[in-house]
Structure formats: structure tokens, C-alpha cells
Specification:
The chain is mainly alpha-helical and about 55 residues long. The protein has three helices and no strands. It has helices at about 10-20, 25-35, 40-50. The relative contact order is 0.16.
């Protein structure tokens, strides 16, 4: 069985912000990164949007 990957918080933030800027689908972005699953990227993007409100 494959070992589960751990990504740093900085990497997650960078990818999530890139996904929000881009007009491409989450599946396309995840396919380019090759290490990511679209569900994980969607979760990172949702968390980034949710936590963004705390900054204001």
C-alpha cells in the first residue's frame, strides 16, 4: 500500500491561491501537479476561502 503524502502548509496555500486565480478546472490543475488528487485540491481551496474572511 502506498504511503500517504504530507504537504507543507506553504505548498498548500501556494497551490490553492493558484487554483483560485486560474480559470481552469480543479482536475486540470491537479493533473499538472501529478502528485495531487482533485479532491485534496478542492479541500485546500475551500479552506483558503473560508479562512480568508478571518484576515479582514
Amino acid at each position: 500500500m502506498a504511503k500517504r503524502q504530507n504537504f507543507s502548509d506553504q505548498f498548500k496555500a501556494k497551490v490553492a491561491l493558484g487554483a483560485m486565480r486560474c480559470n481552469k478546472a480543479v482536475q486540470e490543475i491537479a493533473a499538472k501537479k501529478k502528485q495531487l488528487h482533485p479532491n485534496g485540491l478542492s479541500t485546500w481551496k475551500q479552506r483558503a476561502i473560508y479562512c480568508m474572511a478571518d484576515g479582514f
